[in-house]
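During the no-cost extension, the postdoctoral fellow (Dr. R.K.) reprocessed legacy sequence entries with the updated structure-token encoder. One reprocessed record is reproduced below for audit purposes.
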Amino acid sequence: MRTFWLLILTLSLHASTLHLATSTNPARVNPILATDSASSEIAGFVFNGLVKYDKDAKTIIGDLADSYRFENNTTLLFTLRDGVTWHDGAPFSAEDVVFTYELINSPKVVSPYTSTFRMVQSVEALDPRTVRVVYKEPYFKALETWMMGILPKHLLEQESDIMGSAFNTKPVGTGPYRLAKLEFSKDIELEAYERYFEHRPKIDRIVFHVIPDPMTRFLMLKSGQLDIGSLEAMQFERQVEPAFFEKFRDIEEISHSYTYLGFNLRLEKFKDPRVRRALSLAIDRRALVDILFLGHGQVCTGPFLPGGPAFNRAVTAPQRDIETARALLKEAGFDAQHPLRFEIATSNSSAIRPYAAQILQHQLSQIGVEVTLRVMEWQAFLNMVVFPRKFETVLLGWSLSLTPDPYLLWHSDNDKPGGFNFIGYHNAALDTLIERMQYTVDRDRLASVQQEIFARIVTDDPYLFLFIPNAITVADRRIKNIEPSINGIWHNFIDWEKE
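Re-encoded structure tokens follow.
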């Protein structure tokens, strides 16, 4: 007995823990409902999709699926891994895949991800390890659709209220980590799942410290209380000492996200394209990048990832032109006696965006526009401003996907409750282009259509695309096996070790 307790004590002393930070509590750790970054991040450790990208994001490989093949251009067959279990020990099967598909399309669920499956005609379990998916038409993202996390049928099939289910804060997945603790405004703890199908993660626990204040997160990182974190450019250049980099390594690359100023296009003043163009011409985007990022970033010219096949290199950011901006505003009926007034709403979850809002306020004042600012806590911002569409403009960001699907943000169909087209953008010609893109599986033709979509969106100014920061990640040098790639650093986290 004494030997047993000595063994437990030894294991406890040598257990490795990865300390991270999140700015908010996760709302719903459920992959089909996770719309905030904290929920999505934690769900990524707890759940798996059928497929995922490889390290270099050039190939789609199996995750819960052992393999896949196309029977024809509309029929996809998945063979699932053998021996996968849910965190409660129940076996994973094809029935869980069918259930997840049916649930996300159920009237019980309000999810922006429902449209991800819009091209699917049917999902069928042929046997416990085989799933057949039939698409309505050839679809350019047939495989990417199944990167969505799969849910357990045996725990949720009798659930009458999926949106308010206790499962959303006590999730059970198949992922490398299981949720051990989630309490409001306290630490969130994940523990390695011993039976994970690839292999048990080498780091035993991951603790997310809920820290809303960016400066507090920075101070915790500097003091070594966090193992991995992000640095703003100012912090990187001027607020850390050389000794910091003896403890931390830095990894810098273009981030997969951009910041934009989005208009509520339901409002009369923003329906006028002259107003939107005037505001665009009044903004000095290069100054934003230089002031906010000290060179660690670039001007954003449109909605798709620079360097990717969908990126349109012929589209450039507008140069600042104060005189033309004033003239356009005057044409639209705004002048010194009747100035254009509006509010920019944003969140304090990013240290940068409140400062960016102040710079925009100053720049726009130079053409006589009167801007007020509202900075809110993230969840309040989402629930009181963004989702109910109670804003004039929002300063927000989106991720830059490796395989962008403009349908989710830009198609008229997604101007609906739960949809991501919350600015109310409608353009029939663009809708047609997006629909054509859905059926284009030839990669060269697809890129051509995507680049045309890119140009049309930018020309219309529904958003003013502002900047893409560089992502500056720092990681404790005791963490081994981090391999940076275009897919970020987390692609192989189950192989990380912490000395």
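The domain at 16-227+478-499 is CATH 3.40.190.10 (D-Maltodextrin-Binding Protein; domain 2). Residues 310 and 447 are 5 Å apart (CA to CA). The remaining legacy entries will be reprocessed before the final report is submitted.
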